[in-house]
Amino acid sequence: MLTIDIHTHILPKNWPNLKEKYGYGGWIHLDHHKCGCARMMKEDHFFREIDANCWDAKVRMKECDQHKIDVQVLSTVPVMFSYWAKAADALDISKLLNDHIAGICDTHSSRFAGLGTIPLQSPDLAIKELERCVNELGLSGVQIGSHVNDWNLNAPELFAVFEAAQDLGASVFVHPWDMMGTDKMKDYWLPWLVGMPAETSLAMCSMIFGGVFERLPDLKVAFAHGGGSFPSTIGRIEHGFDCRPDLVAKDNDINPREYLNKIYLDTLVHDAPMLNYLIELMGADRLALGTDYPFPLGELQPGKLIHETITDNKIKQRLLNGTALEWLGLNKERFIK
Amino acid sequence: MLTIDIHTHILPKNWPNLKEKYGYGGWIHLDHHKCGCARMMKEDHFFREIDANCWDAKVRMKECDQHKIDVQVLSTVPVMFSYWAKAADALDISKLLNDHIAGICDTHSSRFAGLGTIPLQSPDLAIKELERCVNELGLSGVQIGSHVNDWNLNAPELFAVFEAAQDLGASVFVHPWDMMGTDKMKDYWLPWLVGMPAETSLAMCSMIFGGVFERLPDLKVAFAHGGGSFPSTIGRIEHGFDCRPDLVAKDNDINPREYLNKIYLDTLVHDAPMLNYLIELMGADRLALGTDYPFPLGELQPGKLIHETITDNKIKQRLLNGTALEWLGLNKERFIK
After folding, report:
1. Is residue B106 helix, strand or coil?
2. pLDDT-derived band of residue B227, with 50, 70 and 90 as boundaries?
3. Is A104 in a helix, a strand, or coil?
4. For a Cys-Cys bond, which of A197, A336, B91, B288 suits B324, CB 3.0-4.6 Å?
5. pTM of this prediction?
6. Residues B197, A227: contact at Cβ < 8 Å?
7. Which residues pair with B73 in a beta bridge?
8. Contact A243/B300, CB-based, under 8 Å?
9. Which of A270, A252, A332, A177 is nearest to B239 (CA)?
10. For residue A167, what are the CA distances in angstroms to A141, A258, A260, B133?
11. What's the pLDDT band for B336 if we cut at 50, 70, 90?
12. Are A225 and B236 an interchain contact pair (Cβ–Cβ within 8 Å)?
């Protein structure tokens, strides 16, 4: 059965020294300290150890073969969003990352599809790069963060970007980043375990209550990590909407549950009962395999949860490829050799 | 069937002017602007409108009768924790609030049980007031916040408080407050809808990974709002523990799932599938009716979700009274007229 993983991250093996290029610090670079391993460094500060599967398409394809993954949807690592930087510089590094992803998708078009990154701190530049991603590079859409500096995703400034995505038929993948509460969660990796699920819920609530989905009914947005804490707190969120419409329904008076069949989620929940809960809540039509490959907090045996949890072949087919193809706007034929 | 609501809030109708009493601002007071209604005010800033059911035991008992709630467990409103204040002043206001709750429990001992509040910014004073609550006032334990200023609940400073609670057989109820991300969530009541579930998960992760439950096996802690986002992200949390023990397991190497049958949650999830998920995950023995009465984000028809969702009488009995009695350390006979 054709298997597509909509949530994987990739970096180029090398890129220019951005501090020298742009004239100020705060950028990530790779320190290839030994063969097949690199340290992601933010200036002199260690951020994350990565392996060759983070940059080498051949290693990725080999690992995909091992796990029977036919297609990976490539996107950058969220720390590269660079929303904090000068917009022109964020555009510049976005172009470099997008060209890199597009190159891999061109070379191995039956194994990879791609999502770009765009400098959302400047909606005008972001729209131009979104158009280039889709029209010139052949990418399926873009990955964006759960918020953009002080803007949540309902910010009026961002609406034109979503409108452009709808017009282009571009897929949008929302990934948590720059997690709330990080300064108070020094221990136990809590920004990743507690902050990220909250960030994704923040993004979903912001787009729903801000009326983004209501005003753009054909916008195709998928959220990472099974929607974080949103699906399990939909009862609380809906009740908040019902009991305090003055606070919650002020920009959109449609019940948030109505959007459960308009958005997409990946399946990265690491738990069979939770996957079944998502299927019950949303329907398999809204869910697509996503693994966060190649990072350790991802599904280390991509596809295993679905294969072990789902017995119904029709549901399995939706989770493994049907929803992904619909969201990406791609035909199965591209990926079948 | 005896029905106990472990999660309700109460305030005195009046209390002294705390700014005058303590000599600095930041305190809550009530503005009884019309009969049966009051505004909770923080200095001149409106915080929340409340009704007589927030302070009047007779109104509460009448509403309980309407909803077939036999017993309410009373606790203060989290904004009264006063962890930010000088410890001696927080102790003083805590005593006032605790004496008020104890008075109501004494007068109507078959209808109310009580939890105190303690000045956790000073663990020594907090322990003394905890002892007074249990030994002198006859309260069942205390309600505490999901964090205490810059301390999460794994802070070494707080351990002696939990140890004292275990020694006293005191129940501890953890309620989210001072929500992470509040400064970035101006719209749509998001600190309550997104921040609170994250705060509760922060509290649970901190106590589990900090080894509090491991070192205090008889400590009885219940968490509000069905444990917030923790139960639905247990797969992610466990996977983080498995894949990065260097970060997550550094203070306690026991799998977080092991604590699911050692902690208690209230049932305030506003959603039948989520209640069923909790029962499947934790067992009914860990779950007790809680409604957040009398606030609008609570269950406005207390007990309705359980009555409509649960058909098995044994499970219903655990949710409506068995778990509550066990957690509170109280006998059924106290409440049966």
Report:
1. helix
2. very high
3. helix
4. B288
5. 0.97
6. no
7. B113
8. yes
9. A270
10. 12, 22, 22, 63
11. confident
12. yes
- CA angle B147/B152/B156 to nearest 5° reads 125
ipTM of the complex: 0.97
- Where helices occur in A210-303 by DSSP H, the ranges are 212-215, 234-243, 245-248, 272-282
Whether the Cβ atoms of residue A297 and residue B236 lie closer than 8 Å to each other:
yes
Closest CA to A42 of A19, A20, A72, A16: A19
Length of chain A: 337
Q: With pLDDT > 90 as the criterion, what percentage of chain B qualifies?
A: 98
**Between B202, B234, B239, which is nearest A297 by CB?**
B239
CB A198 within 8 A of CB A233: no
Residue A274 neighbours by CB under 8 Å, 6+ apart: A226, A232, B232, B234, B235, B277
A184 touching B (Cβ < 8 Å): yes
With b for 16 or more beta-carbon neighbours within 10 A and e for fewer, the A126-136 pattern comes to bbebbbbbbee
What DSSP letter does each residue of B13-64 carry, written as one string? S----HHHHHSS---EEEEEEETTEEEEEETTEEEEEEEGGGT-HHHHHHHH
DSSP line for A199-210: HHHHHHHHHHHT
Q: What is the pLDDT of residue B337?
A: 58
CA torsion A41-A44-A46-A48 (nearest 10°) is 0
C-alpha B86: how far from its chain's center?
A: 23
Element housing B193 (H / E): none
Contacts of A163 (CB under 8 A, 6+ apart): A216
Sequence-ordered alpha helix ranges (H) in B228-321? 234-243, 245-248, 272-282, 304-309, 313-317
Exposed e or buried b per residue across A167-186, where buried means at least 16 C-beta atoms within 10 angstroms of its C-beta:
ebebbbbbbbbbbbbeebbe
Report chain A (337 residues): mean pLDDT per 10 consecutive residues: 98 95 95 93 92 97 98 97 98 98 97 98 98 98 98 98 98 98 96 98 98 98 98 98 97 98 97 97 98 97 97 97 98 87
Closest CB to A184 among B180, B190, B237: B180
Mean pLDDT for chain B overall: 97
A190, A194, A275, A308, best to mutate vs chain B, most B CBs in 10 Å = A194
Other Cβ atoms within 10 Å of B86 Cβ, number: 15
- B100 and chain A: CB distance < 8 Å anywhere? no
Q: What size, in residues, is chain B? A: 337
Distance from CA of B295 to the nearest CA of A (A): 10
CA distance A311 to A250: 43
Q: Which amino acid is residue A270, in one-letter code? A: H
The CA radius of gyration of chain B, in Å to the nearest whole number, is 19
Query: Which string of DSSP letters, residue by residue, matches A108-134?
Result: TTTTEEEEE---TTSHHHHHHHHHIII
CA terminus-to-terminus distance, chain B: 13
Give the Cα separation of B71 and B112 in Å (integer): 5
| B112-116, strands of its sheet edge to edge | B4-9, B71-75, B112-116, B141-145, B171-175, B220-223, B264-266, B287-288
Q: In this predicted structure, what is the pLDDT of residue A337?
A: 58
Confidence (pLDDT) at A155: 98
Q: Are A123 and A153 in contact (CB under 8 A)?
A: no
What pLDDT does B244 receive?
96
